[in-house]
Amino acid sequence: MGVLWAKLWFDLWHQKARTVLVVTSVAAGVFAVGGIFGMSDQLIGGMDESHRNTQPSHINMFLQHSVGLANAQQLAKLPGVEGVDLGNQISVRYKMQPSAEWRGGNIVTRSDYAHQTYDIVTLKAGSWPDRNTIGVERLTAQYFGLKVGDSVLLEMPDETSRPFLITGLMRQPLVEPPQFGGDAVFFMDNQGLERLGIPDGRYFNLKARTVPYSEENARAAAGQIKDRLAKDRISVAATLFQGPSEHWARPLVEGVQLVLEVLAVVSLLMSVVLVTNTVTAIITEQTNQIGIIKAIGGTRRAIGRLYLTGVAFYGVLAFFISVPLGALLAFGASRWFLNMFNIEHEIFDVSQRAFSYQIFAALAVPLLAALHPVLRGVAITVRQALASYGLGSGQFGRGRFEQLLERAGLGRLPAAPALALGNMFRRKERLLLTQLVLIAAGAMFMSVLSLNESLIFTLDTDLARREYNIRFVFVREERFNRVLPLVDAMPGVAAAELWYVHPVSVLRAGQRAREVGSGAQIIGVPFGSDMYVPRVLEGRWLTTRGVNEIMISREMADENGLHVGDSVSLDLGEFGASPWSVAGIFKVAHRKVGDPDPVYAPADAVKAATKKFEQGSRLLVRTRSQAAADVDAVYRRINDALEARQVVVSTFGSATTAEDKVFALGQFSVVTALLLVVAVVVAVVGGLGLMGSLAISVVERTREVGVMRAVGARSRTIMIMFLLEGVLQAVVSWLLAVPVAYVVARPFARALGQVMLKMDLDFQFAFSAAGVWLVCVLVIAVAASAMPAQRAARIRVSESLAYA
C-alpha cells in the first residue's frame, strides 16, 4: 500500500496543472454555493435584525391635521395601545448652491430626539439639529456627496432661501433610496421646523404600538385611533402597518432568494459534472497503470480507495479555497445590497447553513460524482488495461452519427476543422457532460436577462395605460376654476383633469377591510375619462355615472375575500359612511412602499358622498409632446404657475411618468444586478468545464499529436485544431441553450412575479441575450481552449511516443 500512496502523492504533485484544474472546478461550485446561500442568509438576517433594533412602530399614521401631546396621551390610553410617539415629515424645497434649481426633499422631526420611542432615528456622526442647523440622512449624504459642515439652502414660507449648516449625520429606518428616485431627507428640531411654518408642539405623524402584537390587533387599534381622531375632526391621510420582527422589504429579498438558490443548486450540479468529467479522464489516462497495479497484486478495493482518496484531497483543497472566497462574496454583496435599504452591515459573519452546505459540496459531492467512473475503471481486466494507451478508444467513425457526418461532407472539410469536429464527438459521454455545463450556464444567463426584460416589459405595459405624462398632488383640495383654466392655457398642455382623493375605510359587515398599502384612498374618476384605466382582472371598469360602485385592487380583494358584486360600506371619516358595490378588481404592476391602496369610484358618486363639488387634489396632465425634455419643461412651468397662485404642491406623489418609471426600474435593478452576478459565476463555472474537457482531450491524444507532428503537422495547425474544438463545443451548446432558456425563463418569471409583485409578469424573452451569450460563450471557449491548445502545440514527437 505504501507504493500506491507514493503514486498518489506523485500524481498530485507532478501533475500540477491537472491538480489545479480539478481543484478549481470543484472550488467554483463550492464557492457559488457558499456565496449565494451565505448572501441569502445575511440579507434576510441583516434586514430583520436592523428592523428589530429600531423598535419599529406597528402603526404609522400620516395626518391631514396636526395633533399635540395631549392628543397622544389620550390615544395611548385606548385599549390595546402600548404607547404613542409623535413627529413630523413634511416636504420642502432645497438646493446645494444659490445658482442651482430647487429640488424636492423631506424634513423629518421627532418630538424629542433624546427620548424616542418607536422607529428610532440614530445619530451616526456630529450632533442633533437645533433651531439654526439641520441633520442629513446617511443615504442622502452618500448619494448627494454631503457631509457634516456643509450648508444647504432651504426655501422658507416667504419664498426666500436660508442656509442651514449640517451638524449631524443620521439614520432613519424607512427611507426611499435616492438612487431609486427617493427624495433627500433632512432633520430639524421643533424650533427649526417652526421657521418653516409648523408651530412648535404640533405634529402630523403619529406612531403607535399594540400589546399584544398581531396584525389583527394592530389594524383594530388603528381603527380605534382613527375614530378617536375623527371626533376631534382630525383626518388620517395614510396608515402604514409593519410587524415587529420582519423588515418591510423582505418580500423583495425573498423573490431574489428564490432565484439565487435555484442558481446555486445549478452551480453545484455543474460542479458535479466537472468532477465526473475530470475523474473519468484521469482513469482513462491511467488505464494502463491500473493494469500494471493489478498485474502485481493490486486489488479493486485498494485501487478504488487510491483514486477516491485523490478526489477527497481535491475536495479538501477546494474547500479551503472556496470557503473564504464564498464568505467574502456573501459579505460584500450583502453589504452592498443592504446599504441600499439604509442598513449598515459591517460585521463580517459566516452563515452556518452555507458553511455546512460547502462541507457537503466539497467533500461528499466530489466523492459521489467520482464513484461511478472509479468503479468502472477498477473493474477493467489486466489485458484490457495493458492494451489501452489512449489511441483508438472511442475512435471516431464507427457509429451511425459519425457515418451520417461523413455522408454530410465531413471529409471535404479542411484538415483542422474536420479533425476538430471528429475529435469533439469521439468521447460522447464527456461531450454530453461538458455540454450540460455550458447549456446550464447559457440557459441561466439568458433566463436572468429575460427576467430583467420581463420586469421592464411588465412595467412598460402598466405605464402605457396612463394617458397622462405629469401628476401633481396638492396638500389641500383646490377648486376646478382655480387650477384647470390656468393649466389648460399653458403651452404644451393637451389636456388636464383634477381628480378628488380622500382617505377611506372599506367596511364589510361592520369590519374594516385589511388594506394593503398605507390605508386606502377613494379616487373620483371623471365620467368618460381616459387619463388612466388600470388592468381589469375581474368585472368591468367604471362605465356608469353617479352610481355607488368601486374598483378595488387584487390585493385588497384577496386579503378580505371580496368579489365582484359584493356590497361594502365606505367610511369617509367626517363625511360618514354609505353603501357601495364592487364593480371590478384591478391590478397594477408597481406601487411605492407605503402608497395608499387606491379605490376608484365615479367622480359624481364621490362628490355626492362628500359634498365636495368641483374640487380635487390630484392633477393629471397630458402634454402635446412625449419627449422627456418637453415634458420636464411643462412640469416646471405648471409648478411655477401653481406656486405663484399659492397652490401648495406636495413632493409626495408629484412626478412625471418617466420619473415613476426610473424609480420602479431602480427597485427592480437591485434584483437583476444580484442575478447577473450569479449568472457570471455560472458562466465562469461553464468555462472551467470546457477548459477541463479540452485539457483532458490533449492528454488523451498525446500520441496522436506526436504522430501528426511526425508527418509534418505544424504547431499552429495543432493549436487551431484544439481552438476550433472548443469553439465548436461552444456553438453547439449555444444552439441548445437558447430553446432551453426560452422554456426555463417563463416559469422563473412567473415565480419571481408572484413573490415580488403577487402577479404573473408579462413574459418577454430577451432575444438580445442570446446574442450576448453567443459572444460570451465564444470568448469563454477561446480563453478556455488557449491553455490546452498551447500545451498540445508544445508536445514533441519524443514525448508523445514515450507516452504510455
Give the tags:
804 residues, 21 strands, alpha+beta, 20% strand, six-stranded mixed beta barrel, 23 helices, eleven-stranded mixed beta sheet
Span between termini: 23 Å
Strand content: 15-25%
Structural class: alpha+beta
Give the integer mean of the pLDDT values: 81
Shape: elongated
Radius of gyration: 34 Å
Low-confidence stretches: 389-397
| Count of strand segments | 21
How many helical elements?
23
The helix content, as a percent range, equals 40-55%
Q: In oligomeric terms, what are we looking at?
A: single chain
Largest sheet: 11 strands, mixed
Give a description of the structure.
With 804 residues, the protein is α+β, with helices and mostly antiparallel strands. Among the domains are: 57-241, no CATH class; 470-625, no CATH class. It has 23 helices and 21 strands. The strands form two sheets. Strands 11, 12, 13, 14, 15, 16, 17, 18, 19, 20 and 21 form an eleven-stranded mixed beta sheet that branches. Strands 2-3-8-5-7-6 form a six-stranded mixed barrel. Helix 13 (415-424) packs across helix 21 and helix 21 (715-756) runs antiparallel to helix 22. It is elongated and about 100 Å long. It starts with a helix and ends with a helix. Mean pLDDT is 81; it is low at 389-397.
Lay out the secondary structure.
Elements: H1 2-14, H2 16-53, E1 59-67, H3 69-76, E2 81-95, E3 103-110, E4 122-126, E5 133-137, H4 138-144, E6 151-155, E7 161-171, E8 184-187, H5 190-194, E9 203-210, H6 215-231, E10 236-241, H7 250-285, H8 287-295, H9 300-340, H10 352-378, H11 382-387, H12 400-407, H13 415-424, H14 428-463, E11 470-479, H15 480-488, E12 493-508, E13 511-512, E14 520-525, E15 535-539, E16 549-553, H16 554-560, E17 567-571, E18 577-587, E19 597-602, H17 603-610, E20 615-623, H18 628-644, E21 649-656, H19 657-700, H20 702-710, H21 715-756, H22 767-793, H23 797-802
